[in-house]
Automatic annotation (TrEMBL):
<dbReference type="GO" id="GO:0006955">
    <property type="term" value="P:immune response"/>
</dbReference>
<comment type="similarity">
    <text>Belongs to the MHC class I family.</text>
</comment>
<keyword id="KW-0325">Glycoprotein</keyword>
<dbReference type="InterPro" id="IPR001039">
    <property type="entry name" value="MHC_I_a_a1/a2"/>
</dbReference>
<dbReference type="InterPro" id="IPR013783">
    <property type="entry name" value="Ig-like_fold"/>
</dbReference>
<keyword id="KW-0472">Membrane</keyword>
<dbReference type="InterPro" id="IPR036179">
    <property type="entry name" value="Ig-like_dom_sf"/>
</dbReference>
<keyword id="KW-0732">Signal</keyword>
<protein>
    <recommendedName>
        <fullName>Ig-like domain-containing protein</fullName>
    </recommendedName>
</protein>
<feature type="signal peptide">
    <location>
        <begin position="1"/>
        <end position="20"/>
    </location>
</feature>
<keyword id="KW-0812">Transmembrane</keyword>
<dbReference type="InterPro" id="IPR011161">
    <property type="entry name" value="MHC_I-like_Ag-recog"/>
</dbReference>
<feature type="transmembrane region" description="Helical">
    <location>
        <begin position="289"/>
        <end position="313"/>
    </location>
</feature>
<dbReference type="InterPro" id="IPR011162">
    <property type="entry name" value="MHC_I/II-like_Ag-recog"/>
</dbReference>
<dbReference type="GO" id="GO:0005615">
    <property type="term" value="C:extracellular space"/>
</dbReference>
<dbReference type="Pfam" id="PF00129">
    <property type="entry name" value="MHC_I"/>
</dbReference>
<feature type="domain" description="Ig-like">
    <location>
        <begin position="181"/>
        <end position="265"/>
    </location>
</feature>
Length: 370
């Protein structure tokens, strides 16, 4: 077990964070220049999916969401089919509620919100559900009490019917407190790792990019203990796609090549159970050598020979951690140590499971994607 010391780091990863997965859809009638149905998915407050009745298509709203199709080519097609079904249910819901409230025409809007929250420090999980009509909450799910609460007398019949349907309550509990958190955790557990080299004389740089959320820790360790000397931490920076990047440099000028295996770059992401660890192990580094070349103007320039190997890290189904290595050597000084740059690119993909459509009671409110 690594001994982690974060006194000199910019934050302490032990502080808890609440992660969330939310599904929201809005069905409306007689609203000019606006789709009759719009659905969005949020992970930790970042919108990841979008569907509307005009385009009839579910699309990613973050660049990194495109990578979900690598493991699930039918993902977007399945999401589109699901929301098309919800669009039809939304129309039925509006007509049902107009009858409940003795309404005929005019502008009316139904909004359904449901999902889950997960505390990555305590492990606590909570599910939630809320249905609103014309800007007012009308049905609220109390997951702890396992019951629906109607805020309007017109919805008491629905409240009684749903609460008396134990299979419906059990279904909601399972979807929101068991399946939803698993999907949320999986979305934080998906990544890619690579090792690259910048220049022969630069420090070893461990660089992470494309990760989410922005609560992560990266450090160099020696024999399992975090190093504080000869290291330089950068700030966490934003990427254009709402993900983040960070890096930490290590000066190995005083480290013998045979001591490289004692050093590791450790990356920790909030919500991800396992650390991502990269050893400085010469045995797994592919190399190639060349003699030095003398260029004109009395300038002796080092020959940089690069050997690369590319692989991907996925923490799922027991797949091994694989890396990309690029190694350089200063041809004018065969005794100089290798210089290695580590780049960790952590793409977090939103893995949303199979969506189901559920019609409940005499008002057909689906509780969102499964």
């Amino acid at each position: 077990k690594l001994k982690l010391w974060s006194k000199l780091f910019i934050f302490n990863l032990s502080a808890f964070m609440i992660h969330s997965l939310k599904h929201v859809y809005l069905a409306s009638s007689e609203v000019q220049n606006f789709p009759d149905f719009v659905a969005v998915v949020f992970v930790d407050g970042i919108q990841t999916d979008h569907y509307d009745s005009n385009t009839k298509s579910t699309v990613p709203t973050q660049v990194w969401m495109n990578r979900v199709t690598a493991d699930d080519p039918e993902y977007w097609k399945r999401q589109t089919l699901y929301w098309e079904g919800q669009e039809q249910i939304g129309r039925v819901n509006i007509e049902t509620l107009k009858g409940r409230f003795n309404q005929t025409g005019g502008i009316h809007v139904i909004q359904v919100l449901n999902g889950c929250e997960w505390d990555d420090e305590t492990g606590d999980v909570s599910g939630f559900g809320l249905i609103s009509y014309d800007g007012e909450d009308i049905l609220i799910l109390d997951m702890k009490a396992q019951r629906w609460i109607a805020t309007k007398a017109e919805l008491l019949r629905t409240q009684h019917k749903w609460n008396n349907d134990k299979s419906w309550i059990e279904f909601m509990e399972h979807r929101l407190t068991q399946e939803c958190p698993v999907r949320l955790k999986n979305s934080l557990d998906y990544g890619k790792m690579s090792l690259l080299q910048k220049t022969p004389v630069s420090p070893v740089t461990c660089h992470a990019t494309g990760f989410y959320p922005d609560r992560a820790m990266m450090f160099w360790s020696r024999d399992g203990e975090e190093l504080h000397e000869h290291v330089d931490h950068s700030e966490i920076l934003h990427n254009h796609d709402s993900t983040f990047q960070m890096s930490v440099d290590l000066d190995l000028s005083l480290v013998k090549p045979e001591d490289w295996p004692r050093h590791e770059c450790v990356f920790q992401l909030s919500g991800v159970k396992d650390d991502i660890i990269t050893k400085l192990d010469p045995a797994i580094i592919k190399t190639n050598w060349a003699l030095p070349i003398t260029l004109p103007a009395a300038a002796a320039v080092a020959i940089i020979l690069v050997a690369t190997g590319i692989i991907v890290y996925k923490k799922k189904k027991g797949e091994r951690l694989r890396l990309i290595f690029t190694v350089t050597h200063n041809g004018q000084n065969p005794q100089s140590p290798f210089c290695l740059k580590v780049t960790l690119k952590f793409f977090l993909i939103i893995l949303v499971g199979t969506y189901v459509s559920t019609v409940c009671g005499d008002t057909c409110f689906s509780m969102g994607p499964g």
